[in-house]
Design a protein that fits this description.
This protein has helices at about 60-65, 80-90, 95-100, 115-120, 170-185, 235-240, 270-275, 280-300, 305-340, 370-375, 400-405, 420-425, 495-510, 515-520; strands at about 10-15, 35-40, 70, 75, 125-130, 140-145, 155-160, 160-165, 190-195, 345-355, 380, 390, 395, 435-440, 450-455, 460-465, 470-475. By secondary structure, it is of the alpha/beta class.
């Protein structure tokens, strides 16, 4: 059982509705230090941000950050799962070094994090929204966090150590809390770093009531590999994150009929029915008006086979995108406040996600794998006076901490694994920038049954080793096979590139001192 924060007390929150030595790098000509507003959603796929991909949804407010700043087109994570990703971001270190390898871990809050270093340098620091690191936040002047995973409607929070209640939809509430702190909670004579962490669009993709009817008239094209048979990819075949087999009708797709006739076998039905109980009578009325006709039609149609699979995909896409629409609207609210408050020209604004997500590719939802859809993550940064346009350099979420520290003029500790990408934001092209990325996923056995694995990615190729109760290697040519359908490991003609990638994998493991992974690769390590 995962440990959670257990605190008591209540209050009502009113809401509205729908060292590497740092250089003197402040790009504001000696004015007061740059503020930071860091906005992070949970499981927001880059495919569903129109600055990256226009097939599914328009996100004009998130796009504004890209249009007025920098869009990173090769942004990745170090471990594609919520808590570990957050630990990598806070510490600037890979999971094995920060100690939070999977969601059963407890984050060691006594360790070095970038908010602590900013605070020591005179910044005010705050985190609002999803925390999901089990231990209480440290290094913040103010925290107002969801309990555990959080819920979408009328969620309890822990505000500076005391449990409180909230009224309304989580994305609105988190934005309200962020604006309230900016307006009334901070010392306006100090620079600040505000982390705004949304629960959305994490499973179960419960939309705001004002967004329930969006996309009703849209049919989404199936991904070309929706019916992937996983030939030559044992780990992909053995996962449990299939839309067809593992997406629960009640829990995920809201088919909690009042007649109690729809039942599922995933073990999530009861939790799916309980989600409804957190709503107010007014919210339930809006919810019922939307979902009851869908439930009734679903019962009449008695879908099976591919018809049922594709119906589930359409339901998933509509609810997920409705939740994204709410995020985009609230990003707009926050940007508008910053502009009206005169903060835009002295504040770096970041939009990202804790990892990517599958929108039906390979027939999946969720994340975890080193395949592109979950390994990649959106990263948009608006830096006043900084670069406008694209950067295609490899960046990773271990880079956020050193970047923010360098921007603030704070020395970057030598033990951070990440590199500051501030030079890229200023239009520079560092000659010694990384040419490869390291990834390590640990959470198995666990939900979704994705095997433990580590790997290396270069501009063209990717090599992955699945281990633990499996010993399987995969090699992909991303130029010729961007959807990662053909495992080339062991195929004739790929011997030399395999040797090169194995050598690079070992080099990165040595560089980052991932000793447990090195033991698994000991035959590859030169004497």
């Amino acid at each position: 059982m995962k440990k959670e924060l257990l605190l008591t007390g209540s209050a009502l929150i009113a809401v509205t509705s729908c060292g590497k030595q740092a250089k003197d790098t402040t790009p504001n000509n000696g004015k007061k230090p740059m503020n930071i507003v860091y906005i992070m959603s949970d499981d927001h796929s880059y495919q569903t941000i129109s600055a990256y991909d226009k097939r599914y949804i328009q996100t004009p407010n998130i796009d504004r950050i890209a249009n007025e700043g920098t869009r990173f087109t090769n942004s990745f994570v170090a471990n594609s799962i919520s808590g570990p990703s957050r630990a990598c971001i806070l510490t600037g270190k890979h999971s094995h070094a920060n100690g939070f390898t999977d969601n059963s871990s407890t984050f060691d809050g006594s360790q070095q994090t970038y908010p602590k270093l900013l605070r020591k340098a005179g910044y005010q620091t705050a985190v609002i929204g999803k925390w999901h690191l089990t231990s209480a936040p440290t290094g913040f002047d103010h925290s107002d966090i969801l309990i555990g995973q959080g819920i979408y409607y009328n969620a309890p929070f822990i505000r500076d150590g005391k449990e409180t209640t909230s009224k309304g939809y989580a994305t609105n509430v988190i934005t309200d809390k962020a604006i309230e702190w900016l307006e009334n909670g901070r010392d306006k004579d100090k620079p600040f770093c505000l982390l705004v962490h949304h629960k959305a669009p994490h499973r179960t993709w419960m939309p705001d009531t004002c967004d329930l009817d969006l996309f009703d008239d849209k049919t989404f094209e199936l991904p070309a590999n929706f019916y992937d048979d996983y030939e030559g990819r044992q780990a992909a075949k053995e996962q449990e994150m299939s839309i067809s087999k593992d997406m629960d009708l009640v829990y995920d797709l809201k088919m909690a009929d009042k007649e109690n006739e729809i039942h599922t076998s995933t073990g999530l039905e009861e939790a799916g029915r309980r989600m409804y109980d957190t709503m107010t009578p007014e919210e339930k009325a809006a919810w019922d008006a939307h979902y009851d006709p869908i439930i009734a039609k679903f019962k009449r149609d008695k879908l099976t086979g591919k018809q049922l699979d594709e119906w589930k995909y359409q339901r998933y896409m509509r609810d997920y995108l409705r939740v994204i629409h709410s995020i985009d609207r609230n990003v707009g609210r926050l940007l508008d406040y910053l502009e009206q408050a005169g903060l835009m020209e002295n504040t770096m604004i970041v939009y990202t996600s804790d990892q990517g997500f599958y929108m039906g590719e390979h027939g999946w939802f969720d994340k975890r794998f080193m395949y592109e859809e979950s390994f990649r993550t959106p990263l948009l940064v608006r830096l006043p006076g900084g670069k406008k346009g694209d950067v295609d350099a490899f960046v990773q979420n271990i880079d956020y901490a050193p970047t923010i520290l360098e921007l603030a003029g704070v020395a970057v500790p030598e033990d951070m694994h990440g590199q500051s990408f501030l030079p890229w934001l200023r239009g520079e092209h560092p000659a010694n920038w990384r040419k490869s990325l390291y990834y390590h996923f640990y959470e198995y056995p666990a939900e979704h049954a994705v095997k433990r694995h580590y790997g290396v990615r270069t501009e063209r190729y990717k090599l992955i080793h699945f281990y633990n109760d499996i010993d399987s290697w995969e090699l992909y040519d991303l130029q010729e096979d961007p959807m990662e359908m053909r495992n080339l490991y062991g195929k004739a003609g790929y011997e030399e590139i395999t040797r090169q990638l194995e050598k690079e994998l070992v080099r990165l493991q040595i560089q980052y001192q991932d000793t447990n992974a090195m033991k698994l690769n000991k035959e590859l390590i030169p004497d």
